[in-house]
Amino acid sequence: MPSADVAVIGAGLAGLLTAVRLAEDGARVVVLSEGNGTLHWAGGPIDLGFAPRASDAADAVRGLARRRGHPYALLGVDVAPALDWFLQLTTDLGLPHAGSLDGGFGPLPTGIGGVRPVSVVPAAQAAALEPWAPGERLVIAGQAGFKDFWPRAVASSLARPEVWGGFSRPARVTAVTVEWPGLHERRNLNALRIAEAFDNPDWRTAALDITARAVASTGPGPVRVGLPAVLGLRDHPRALDAAEERLGAPVMEFPLVPPGIPGIRLHDVLRAKLRARGGRLLLGERVARVETTRRKVTAVATTAATRELVTHVGALVLATGGIAGSGLIGEPSGVIRETVLGLPVEGPPIESWLSGDPLDPGSLPIAAAGLRTDDTLRPVDPGRPTDGPLFDNVRVVGALLAGQQWMVERCGDGVSLASAWRAAASLSGAAPKRRATPRRAEAVR
Q1: Are strands 379-380 and 372-373 parallel, antiparallel or unpaired?
Q2: Which of 217, 249, 281 is the last residue of a domain?
Q3: 241/274 same-domain check
Q4: Looking at residue 415, which CATH number applies to its domain?
Q5: Which of 8, 188, 210, 336 lies most in the core, judged by the most C-beta atoms within 10 Å?
Q6: Is residue 146 located within the same domain as residue 186?
Q7: Kind and range of the H or E element at 241?
């Protein structure tokens, strides 16, 4: 039967980072996921925390850490070292990110014509962190007929000063619509297809030349170019370099509705890193049951096509997500159920799951439901936390941790980073040190 030092259930940011960190320390790691994680929805920014009066992300993290029961009350001290590791890791993997905890916020325009505050972003969005110079313009360019990005509508919204919320903004916002080669013939054009086209050097040269002429037609002077987040999937670094060279200006990718191309890029390089360190990522693997003895998980069984696959494990990491993912399910009876081990969940009564405006993330108390843990992220009973951990070899990471309103606080990625860092550190001593079996990093298709 197969075995692993650690099994991670969930392939979102928290799960993959925990797995990579453990694999770097020599552990044999397997990641099990019923489907693609939330990275396939992600637009690029790494949200560490935000508050209207916070001077920077570090200030926002400190404010959240002062809230009783918030994950940062436990993990706030881990955000800085986890972020440093993440920035070095993504640089080494050819997908560098820019920004810092204490560098302030920048305004990143989005594909729906809004602006979101960011502190850490992929290199393709780094221009958002730089203040706008006097007279500097923003030219938004996009493919005609691409239903997820309408340049003129986006420009019309971004031309309004109030949209920028007091941030530095361009002197003028204009839009150009272009016809990239062969795309007007596609009936159902999406971001993934355009990104794959940008992976082709000949195609992207032609597309960028068309775009450069359109941008030049808007007039002289300093300019930044806003494009939909489609500049390549597997050849993104070269596509970004080519775009800035041929357009002769900083380029800024605007986040779009899913699929999130920047998130898929990050998923792919993390998966390649895990494989290179001897780890495994098994997608489409639904956990059927978990075998336990006393206070330890001993095996995880997943359902295959015609049989059950049992993997013996030394430890288990739950990275299944909160109520917005598959980690928690609200039952009609009012019970909020944790889906893998049946762990007790801290959450509001059913009558206040959805209160106030259903479209306002701040009025969704159920979003803060989750699991309580001890200092090493082992799950505890929220009603009897002093009784100790329910399982000695289980760790809880990411959105499954109780007490966070990540949609409002914009802290979800920071919690994922910090909890992955803490969980991996607490498990590394238990995993035998091994020399990882080198594997050639493979692109995911």
Answers
A1: antiparallel
A2: 249
A3: no
A4: 3.50.50.60
A5: 8
A6: yes
A7: helix 236-247
- Asked if pLDDT for residue 444 goes beyond 90, the answer is no
Query: Taking Cα atoms as reference points, which of 188, 234, 179, 165 lies closest to residue 209?
Result: 179
Whether 208 is in a domain gets the answer yes
Instruction: Confirm if 193 and 148 have CB atoms less than 8 A apart.
Output: no
230 and 361 both lie in a single domain: no
Q: What is the pLDDT of residues 240-261, one digit of tens each?
A: 999 999 999 999 999 999 999 9
Cα 135 to chain center, whole Å? 34
Max Cα–Cα distance, the chain, nearest Å: 72
Q: Which pLDDT value is given to residue 431?
A: 43
* Four-CA torsion 197, 202, 207, 210, nearest 10 degrees: -170
Domain range spanning residue 188? 131-249
CB-based contacts of 227, cutoff 8 Å, min separation 6: 140, 141, 142, 211, 243, 251, 252, 253, 254
H or E, element range at 98? strand 97-99
Instruction: Show the tokens assigned to 418.
Output: 């910090």
Query: Are both 323 and 428 inside the same structural domain?
Result: yes
Q: Is the pLDDT of residue 167 over 90?
A: yes
Question: What's the whole-model pTM score?
Answer: 0.93
Whether 224 is in a domain gets the answer yes
**Pair 190, 145: CB distance under 8 Å:** no
Within a domain: 118: no
H or E segment to which residue 156 belongs: helix 151-158
Instruction: Report the distance separating Cα 170 and Cα 136, nearest Å.
Output: 6
Contact of 204 with 181, CB cutoff 8 Å: no
> Which residue, chain included where needed, has tokens 């007279």?
135
